[in-house]
Amino acid sequence: MRSKRNQILAVPYVVWMAVFVVVPLLLIVVYAFTTKDGSFTLANFSTMNQYLGVFGNSFFLALVATAICILLGYPLAYFLARSGHRMKGVAMMLIMLPMWMNFLLRTYSWMSLLEDTGLINRLLQSIRFFDLWNGIFGTNIEFFHMINTPGAVVLGMVYNFLPFMVLPIFSVIEKIDSRVIEAAQDLGANSRRVFQKVVFPLSLPGVLSGITMVFIPSVSTFVITKLLGGGMTMMLGDLIEMQFLGAAYNPHLGSAISLVMMIVVLICMAVMNRFGEGEEEAMLL
Amino acid sequence: MKKNGLFSRLFMGLVFLFLYAPIFVLIVFSFNATKSRTVWGGFSLDWYAKLFQNTQIMGALYTTLLVSVIAAAIATIAGTAAAIGFYSMKRRPRTLCLSVNNIPMTNADIVTGVSLMLLFVFAGRFLPFKQGFATLLIAHITFDIPYVILSVLPKLRQLDANIYEAAQDLGATGFLAFRKVVLPEIMPGVLNGMLIAFTMSIDDFVISYFTAGSQTSTLAMVIYSMTRRKISPEINALSTLMFLVVLALLLVINIRQANQDKAAKKKADKLAAPGSAALLDTQK
Amino acid sequence: MILSVATALALMAGCTGGGVGGDTASAGEVNVYNWGEYIDESIFADFTAQTGIKVNYNVYPDNESLYSTLKGGGAEYDVIIPSDYMISRMIEEDMLEKLDFNNIPNFSDIDPSLKDPDYDPTNEYSVPYMWGTVGIIYNTAKIDKPVTGWSSLFDSDYKGQILMFDNSRDGIGIALKYLGYSYNTTDEAQIQEAVDLLIEQQSYLQGYVMDQIFDKLEGGEAAIGPYYAGDFITMHESNPDLAWCLPEEGSNIFVDAMCIPKGAANKTNAEAFINFMCTTDAGLANCKAIGYSTPLLSVKDALPDEVKNDPVAYPSAEALARCESFTNLPENILALYDSEWLRLKTQ
Asked: Which residues are listed as membrane-spanning (chain A) (predicted)?
């Protein structure tokens, strides 16, 4: 199978990648360093300090969302991996299933839930929750204000990208050889120590790939902010979209922002993976 | 490992509630008699009836399914071929190819979309084409293939190199040997890759948004343009139907798999029973 | 290698050669790109019945997005409906085709006062579709103080209840008017002052919206926000608590006109469509559906009296005198608008 002749099978795709992956990225680079009339410029980068706030905001919110995804996703994946065979299949199915419903629609549905006059507030009003709340805290509120806040945007990101955290962690934990755990138990480790010393280190690669799969779409989202942020929380995705198809046409600036975002994300990921590899080695030793 | 306790059950329940609350809302309001998103106005099937008369939504659904099926099919074939090619390469070119292959997966969707849009606009200056279904399809193929490759490669690595050679030694031509020996072995990976590719295509909005041009719309794009005012409950109705179809499919697959597993286990038990019992005895 | 290039080329060719899905350029089509919620879509069937030309219809949220889409080069439209100031920008940047008015005989029905407008002085590029004003729409059940001017949008008592325009020209424009400046000021300090005001406003805003305002005001999720007169008439039908105010400081009067973008594939069809839109029947249907004010004399005549005399759609001369239209701004000010708008949105 591993014959030289078979290498030729890769050629069409290598060409495809060159044309539809590499060339487009080169175009981004070209656009980022040129002006409207095609002459070289660094202005697209030198004006970028204006957008430091957006960069900071995006990375912060994406980090928060990723952290929450780990906090929710890790235990979920862990409990699922410990479930019976039957349950596992069903649970995995239940995690995949929402992805088949358009994410815009699910996010929009959150809007109906979170609004001041939305379903959650209506439900709480109907059970007289706010009377109780006001009685205890001495406040005078009729609803919780949730929509159009950075919190709602984070919720949207966690909601949409949680499966991408659960799946890799689950598949890694599931593959852990049960004999390794038994060995640790036989050697006298209690379940907490087994988790600390065996399960958790072995599951780290899953966590790392989960982080990548949650962080990158979070940092670059532009739809969730529009629906759940009321146009008041701007993220890098919004900024880029605005320069290409939105309200402030400037593909050169948009390309420059994309390029910087790409590089910053790549650096983050490289650092994280280096860190992760270090962990793995330490664990093997 | 220990079975799950009360806490873990509760935790799982809450997370699933979180995942399904908006879907539940969506389904419930697809049966609403009024247009409201939050006020229940009585039960009705009007939106389902209207859905099938809405040419915009049905057309977009058709485009979405068509592009997803074609892209997944092409990506599966091309991706499997490419995976075999990569597998046969020497280490250094393979690492390079795999890193490029990873780009569409690790890059933000918006960057992939925008960069492809720049390419299509750029190429449009020299070639007589406009953005439309074709560019949409190219974009989908481009982001689908990496998933197929990543799904097939591990199966190739698990493959016993000897069986392919054995088949050839027995007189099978390269392709026949591949079809009869290799393909069945890597098939789970291929199918899995195809499923992921199809899911990715169906679910995609961002890349389509930048590459479909002005006259082609996928379902996600129609929904996006609706969010600018208000999503029509017809979309809820459509999503409910799609949800039920997928749910039914997954259930069937799940039950079949469970049955197969059971049968396989029974078979294995039967086969292994006499010997293993004896083995166990001796061990004791 | 040849294979994959060939596949790619074949795919691209499929696009021009009437491939799968939404193909273009074949005879008998017209690609229309309009504002959202801005037409009675049922008239397309009449147009097709009369001419045999199929209508492909798409919508955009605001003038600036329309501009980006056309500039981006990926779009192909035959009829677009930008507003006045955007038309003059597009004329300046050579983005529009000259119309053949021989194919648009119904142009004669256009109100003469709207012919040869400032944005298209020789009237070679555009045919007015609708006109209207911008004002404040508010829910009388929730807003207890009288609403007379823009100050109501800057009233922190209504924290969390106020909506604002999600496009730079309308948004910054309101702040400029509130401060007593012109919409078309080129004084950078005035524009910055306006944006500073908007930044302050942001702390008690519910959100920036365009057409979502229908849903939010009709459903009572928000209490007050600025939008177009015609849309108020539509919203009022589903929520009678809503009221309209044309601000005393003055407001924006706009004309949206039909144009053909440069290089349109179906120019003759586009002119036929524009002509059709100027018929009395189509004009009446559109007025009824969207509530905007018509530039067509025959349509205005045929409208019921209560619509004709509705001061929201057809304000008095004295009210109109307070209004100012947008004009195209010099390039450096347009760039300032973009960067200032980003400054606001990235607070």
From this structure: 12-34, 54-77, 89-108, 152-173, 194-216, 252-275
- The domain total for chain B is 1
Does residue B126 lie in a domain region?
yes
Q: The domain spanning residue B75 has which CATH number?
A: 1.10.3720.10
Q: Is B100 a member of any domain?
A: yes
Helices B183-203 and B133-158: crossing angle, nearest 10°?
140
Q: What is the ipTM of this complex?
A: 0.90
- With 70 as the cut, is the pLDDT of residue C26 above it? no
| Measured distance CA(C170)–CA(C167) in Å, rounded | 6
Chain A residue closest in CA terms to C70: A245
- pLDDT score, position C21: 37
Record: contact B236-A105, CB cut-off 8 A: yes
Tokens, residue C131: 């006109």
Q: How far is CA A185 from the centre of its chain?
A: 35
- Please answer yes or no on whether C206 and A230 come within 8 Å at the CB atom: yes
The partner residues of B43 in beta bridges, in order of sequence, read B32
Residue A3 has pLDDT above 80, yes or no: no
**Which has more confidence, B2 or B152?**
B152
Query: Across the interface, do A116 and C71 touch by the CB < 8 Å criterion?
Result: no
- Say whether residue A231 is in contact with chain C using an 8 A CB cutoff: yes
Q: Which residues on neighbouring strands pair with residue C33, listed in sequence order? A: C58, C80
Distance spanning both ends of chain C, measured CA to CA: 50
Look at residue C101 and tell me whether its pLDDT is greater than 60.
yes
Print the domain residue range for B68. 55-233
- pTM for the full predicted model: 0.90
Q: Tell me: the pLDDT tens digits for A57-80?
A: 999 999 999 999 999 999 999 999
- Measured between CB atoms, does A49 come within 8 Å of chain C? no
Quick one: CA torsion of B234, B236, B237, B239, rounded to 10 degrees? 120
pLDDT value at position C287?
Answer: 95
Confidence grade of residue A83 (pLDDT, cut at 50, 70, 90): confident
Asked if B79 contacts B145 with a C-beta cutoff of 8 angstroms, the reply is: yes
- Please tell me which chains touch A, using 3 or more CB pairs under 8 Å as the contact test: B, C
Q: Do B142 and A90 touch (CB under 8 A)?
A: no
Query: Which residues of chain C have a Cβ shorter than 8 Å from any chain A Cβ?
Result: 1, 3-5, 7-8, 62, 64-65, 67-69, 71-72, 160, 166-168, 202, 205-209, 219-221, 338-339, 341-343, 345-347
Task: Please give the full DSSP string across B184-245, using - where no structure is assigned.
Answer: HHHHHHHHHHHHHHHHHHHH--HHHHHHSTTT---HHHHHHHHHTT---HHHHHHHHHHHHH
Please, are residues A34 and A259 in contact by the beta-carbon 8 Å criterion?
no
Q: Residues C161, C222: contact at Cβ < 8 Å?
A: yes
In the predicted structure, residue C207 carries a pLDDT above the cut 70:
yes
pLDDT for C276 beyond 90: yes
pLDDT band at C10 (very low <50, low <70, confident <90, very high): low
CB proximity C321 to B under 8 Å: no
Report chain A residues whose CB lies below 8 A from the CB of C64. Answer: 246-249
pLDDT value at residue C8: 53
Residues from chain A that touch C4, judged by Cβ atoms under 8 A, are: 11-13, 15-16, 19
Q: What mean pLDDT, rounded, does chain C reach? A: 91
- Note the pLDDT tens digit of each residue in C122-142: 999 999 999 999 999 999 999
Instruction: Give me the mean pLDDT over the A141-168 stretch.
Output: 94
Residue B134 covered by a domain: yes
Domain ranges across chain A: 50-242
Please list every residue in chain C whose beta carbon sits closer than 8 Å to the beta carbon of residue B215: 22-24, 31, 56, 58, 76
pLDDT at A275 over 90: no
Answer yes or no: is pLDDT of B276 > 70: no
Cβ-defined contact of B114 to A255 (cutoff 8 Å): yes
Q: Which CATH class is domain A50-242?
A: mainly alpha
Residue B25 maps to a domain: no
- Residue where the block lists tokens 């815009």: A104
